[in-house]
Amino acid sequence: MKLKFLLFILFIAIGTQFSVAQHIRLDKNEMAFLASQEKVNVVFTYEGLLYNADNFTEGEFLDYIKKKIEGKLNLEEALDWEQKHLTAKDSIYPKIFVASLNNRIKNYDHRIEFVWNDPSIKYTMKVQTDWMYFGYDAGIAQQPAKANLKIYFYETSNPDTIISQIDVERAEGFDVVGNLSFTPNVGITSTNWVEEFLKANEDYPKPSLIRMGTMYDKAAVRFGMTLKRVLD
CA torsion sign, 223 to 206 to 116 to 190? Predict the structure, then answer.
């Protein structure tokens, strides 16, 4: 009986921790302007980005990972992973986030479209990633990719005046790596980048870019669910 009680308490504690971690706070009044918009520009930034529990800078992290890959494989594989990682940051992760977010909100009463990197749009949403952890899959043990995101809204012509800031702490990726929440034809003019990205199935010692991609996918889904308060 005592064991059952302890297991019950542990289950409640884990469940509470999960629900807190998954909650995104949003000020509905600050975000009310969205309901009158048709499109919002999206930019991604990584200023001050840190990695892993060690809080490596990007330079330190890349040196650490490249040495590990070179030691297990070779220098060419290490440099190839580095280039794919930088490309994913610059273009793949933003595309995943935007496509997933648009897919999640597509049936709301006010369907707004988020557009990556279009400074002609009146308002901008900046997605700032300041911490990353790639997770792992060791067969019997797995950890999803995680990240800390800060989402800012401002008028594109006045980026120093923040309308609203939303923190997404320890966002976690989906458990199934290799599947995205959106179908390839949702808000995407070309699907080649999706197909190519999902072929990059890195195994140890390479950190999985796909696993990190699922983190941005799930974070966008969660954020889209939060926007229901404003758009539906």
Answer: negative
Tell me the sheet residues that pair with 162: 154
How confident is the model over 134-180, as pLDDT tens digits?
Answer: 998 877 778 899 999 999 999 999 999 999 999 998 889 877 666 78
Output the DSSP codes for 179-212.
--SS-TTSS-S--HHHHHHHH----TTS--HHHH
Please tell me the pTM assigned to this model. 0.86
Place of tokens 């959106």: 182
Neighbours of 97 (CB within 10 A): 26
> Which two three-digit tokens encode residue 165?
């800031």
Q: Where are the alpha helices (DSSP H) in the chain?
A: 2-22, 58-72, 75-87, 93-105, 192-199, 209-226, 228-231
Distances from the Cα of 181 to the Cα of 69, 104, 203, 213, angstroms:
30, 9, 22, 11
Cα–Cα distance for residue pair 51/202, rounded to 1 Å: 18
